[in-house]
Amino acid sequence: MNYYLALLGLILLLLLLYALFALWRRWRRRRLWRRLEKTPLSEAMRRHLETIPHYHLLPPEMKEAIQPKMLYFVQDKEFRGIGITITDEIRTVIAFYACLLVLKIPDECFGILRTILIYPSEIVTKQVEEAGGIHREEETILEGQSSGDTVVIVWHDARHQALHPGHQNVILHELAHVLDFEDGAADGTPPLPLSRYSSWSSVLYRRYRALREKSQTNRDWGSYRLLGEYAATNEAEFFAVATELFFTRPRSMRRHFRDLYDEFKSFYRLDTADLFGELEHSKEP
Asked: Is residue 281 in a domain?
């Protein structure tokens, strides 16, 4: 009996310590946020921010709102270069796209994310696949990767995609994965209001299954070519690729997948087709 009481006491103590630690972190973050709300961007950060086409298209009130979020992101996350020196440009570009995702989501700034690893160029990794008892090793080129608390970004690709917007944006993609992880599962469904889960699940599952069917039969892709084959990998990748599309080719997404666009518009609370539609280089996928 004493053993069980002692064990219960230890569990309660650990829970109390965890609760106190969580409260301390929350207090620390609120204190940091209050300080940064009135802190202007450095001249170097402002100069690099002005080079980003997405930033130029934001209305003045959004430009003002995103800046303290960027400062908070830079202060709260560890930027670590692997074979590259972390510069103001790297911090500014990554912080801008990260904070663009959560610009309209209250109290959201990637709380589970701790470290951003920056590589100068593409990463070649080896993956072992098994089929029918046969092991096969293949080399894979990575532009980025996310594990929830850590994100890997290849700067060569990230910089080009930021300054010359096209179909892809590795920063948006990997930070979307972080949002997806925040409820504890990488399943393509980030934390949502209870009233939104049914509609979100219905639309995304239907579109994902249709894309999977297109990728497996490899014919008659139609509008689904806009999403691409990689989005059919799993639900988590579908969400990340669709997030890229929502910010990089929003008018095409709205034209071909209005139901999907509306779900992302509701989640991110941004009408990106109106904000960024002119960045698209072509009208059709």
From this structure: yes
Task: State which of 166, 182, 198 marks the end of a domain.
Answer: 182
Residues 148 and 154: their CA atoms lie apart, in Å, by 17
Residue appearing with tokens 């969400």: 239
Segment 247-262 mean pLDDT: 97
**Helix and strand element counts for the chain (H, E):** 12, 6
Q: Using alpha carbons only, give the angle 137, 147, 20 rounded to the nearest 5 degrees.
A: 150
Given a contact cutoff of 8 angstroms between Cβ atoms, the answer to whether 90 and 49 are in contact is no
pLDDT single digits (tens) 166-183: 889 999 999 999 999 998
User: Is residue 226 a contact partner of residue 253, using CB atoms and an 8 Å limit?
Assistant: yes
CATH of the domain at 274: 3.40.390.10
Give 34: exposed, middle or buried? Use CB within 10 Å, 0-12, 13-18, 19+. Answer: exposed
Closest to 171 measured CA to CA, from 187, 199, 190, 152: 152
Structure tokens at 118: 């920056």
- Quick check: 204 pLDDT over 60? yes
Residue 90: domain span: 43-182
**How far, in Å, are 40, 76, 238, 259 from residue 186 at the CA level?**
36, 23, 11, 22
Which of the 8 DSSP states describes residue 42? P
Note whether 83 and 213 are same-domain residues.
Answer: no
**More reliable by pLDDT, 278 or 123:** 278
Angle (nearest 5°) at CA 33 between 182 and 154: 55
